[in-house]
Amino acid sequence: MLIGVTGQIGSGKSTAAEILKSFGAVVVDADLIGRQVVDGTLSLRRKLAHEFGEDIIDSSGILNRKKLADRAFRDEQSKRVLDVLVHPYLLEELDKQVRFLKKKYDVVVIDAALLLDWELDLKVDFVLVIHASQNDRIRRLEARGISRSDAKARQKAQLPFRVYQSRADRVVLNNKNIASLKVKLSHLWKCLVTKPVDSYSNQG
Fold it and tell me: Could you tell me if residue 204 is inside a domain?
């Protein structure tokens, strides 16, 4: 089974993916793949520097991710430019890893903020959306060192929740703590490994 886990930034989707990993799934982290393809592809780093400023690359050729994020998420057009440059490389590597892991594991989880943007919801067996209130999401981002203004800008650049909700097989509300989220996901996991995919309600 191939499960796509997604949600707006700060919702806790990666925490959810790690919980599913503890249940026995193997997780493919799209953010990590994105970093790997940028770090490993000189031509891509040059394209990013051309679009977002030469100073996002230091003298050693290392990408300054904070500078890139600040510029790429400042408006919708900048984010589209980033997506057009990075995503072909990322999706090729993601597809390669998923095909390999599906041969070895019963349950593979794709942890991807842009799962819907890439239309991977059409390729996975089950779409799990993790949701939290805007205040909770901003608070979590601030705890990660992201300013409130940057957090709001990044949230604004993402799809509205109604889109996630309409394309989800299940929405899980992450409004308390990790223990509470684990209980909800434990119930879902038991359903996923024992019942057909189309036997769930959308909310949870």
Answer: no
The C-alpha atoms of residue 168 and residue 172 are separated, in whole angstroms, by: 10
For position 84, which CATH number holds? Answer: 3.40.50.300
Domain that holds residue 134: 2-199
With bands split at pLDDT 50, 70 and 90, how would you rate the model's confidence at 194?
confident
pTM of the model: 0.85
Enter the tokens of residue 182.
């684990």
pLDDT band (50, 70, 90) for residue 73: confident
Pair of tokens at residue 185: 């996901």
Q: Is the dihedral of CA 122, 127, 133, 137 positive or negative?
A: negative
Tens digit of each residue's pLDDT (9 = 90 or more) over 99-122: 999 999 999 999 999 999 999 999
- CB–CB of 1/126 below 8 Å? yes
Asked whether residue 179 is assigned to any structural domain, the reply reads yes
188: its two tokens: 């879902």
> How many independent structural domains does the chain possess?
1
pLDDT at res. 196 = 54
- In angstroms, rounded to a whole number, what is the distance separating the alpha carbons of residues 6 and 13? 6
Query: Residue 26's pLDDT is what?
Result: 97
117 in any annotated domain: yes
Q: Is the dihedral of CA 57, 7, 26, 90 positive or negative?
A: negative
Please say whether the beta carbons of 160 and 76 come within 8 A: no
Q: Does residue 140 sit within a domain?
A: yes
Q: Is there a contact between 117 and 159 (Cβ–Cβ < 8 Å)?
A: yes
